[in-house]
Amino acid sequence: MRRPLVAGNWKMHGTRASVAELIEGLRCLALPGNIDVAVFPPCLFIPQVIDGLAGKSITVGAQNCAMQSQLGALTGEIAASQLADAGCSLVLVGHSERRLMLGEHDDLLCRKFAAAQVSGLVPLLCVGETLAQRDAGQALSVIKQQVGIVVERLGIDAFARAVLAYEPVWAIGSGLTASAQQAQDVHAAIRAQLAAENAAVAGTVRILYGGSVKAANAAELFGMPDIDGGLIGGASLNADEFGAICRAAGS
Predict the structure, then answer these.
(1) How confident is the model at residue 175, as a pLDDT?
(2) Residue 43 gets which letter from DSSP?
């Protein structure tokens, strides 16, 4: 049985004051004991969040890491080893906003994925299609390529120490949400792709859904057999809403 994971991606939001308020809200939540919970604050606030959530069963991750794991001459980047040293446990790799707006390509993302694992972090690999790709019938082929490049470069066993997130790009921040069945169909296709390489890995890897998840739709999404939780965007900035989503995952 795969243990659900609810992960909050705070994106480029927050000030020291608002983060402190959100931490206080999270500390007050009664979280289900049968799920894992994580938050991904902006890098500036990682130490504040780790200290503020001490003793609470919420893991802290980073939204990005450099393509090399160790320290070096790479101005403006943060190495996965530095993130691990700061107390992070996970790191997002390949979020659609970075793929589309910052031009991050599959080769670079494979290097980031590997750097994270070398440093002891769990990479959370984001995959998904744009609306144009879905309308053209290319959704599954696009996602198959995004997953397949990691299998090709790093081997199927890399996913034994990773998490996947399916995020339909057209649903992020748009208010649109894939239907539970649409999301399930893609999750099942990803798991089948992995199972063709190694059934054991495919059966244990957690695949999250990310795309305008809210308390109102979380239970239906999380009730699907291949959806193992959510990568939550805007709703994770509200402690009460995030808590309701966590309870849906634990029910």
Answers:
(1) 67
(2) G
Evaluate whether 201 touches 156 at the Cβ level (below 8 Å).
Answer: yes
Cα 113 to Cα 151: distance, rounded to the nearest angstrom: 11
Amino acid at 127: V
Cβ-based burial of 24 (10 A; exposed 0-12, middle 13-18, buried ≥19) = exposed
- Is the pTM higher than 0.90? The answer reads yes
Closest CA to 95 of 184, 183, 228, 211: 211
Q: Which residue, 4, 60, 49, 13, is CA-closest to 31?
A: 4
User: Are residues 68 and 79 in contact, defined by beta-carbon separation less than 8 angstroms?
Assistant: yes
Q: How far apart are CA 132 and CA 12, in angstroms?
A: 26
Name the domain count of the chain. Answer: 1
**pLDDT tens column, 59-117:** 999 999 999 999 999 999 999 999 999 999 999 999 999 999 999 999 999 999 999 99
Q: What is the mean pLDDT of the chain?
A: 96
Q: Which residues are catalytic?
A: 95, 167
Are 125 and 99 in contact, with CB atoms under 8 Å apart? no
CATH number of the domain encompassing residue 102: 3.20.20.70
User: Per-residue pLDDT tens for 162-198?
Assistant: 999 999 988 776 767 789 999 999 999 999 999 999 9
Task: Name the pLDDT band for 1 (thresholds 50, 70, 90).
Answer: confident
Spatial separation of the C-alpha atoms in residues 249 and 251, rounded to whole Å:
6
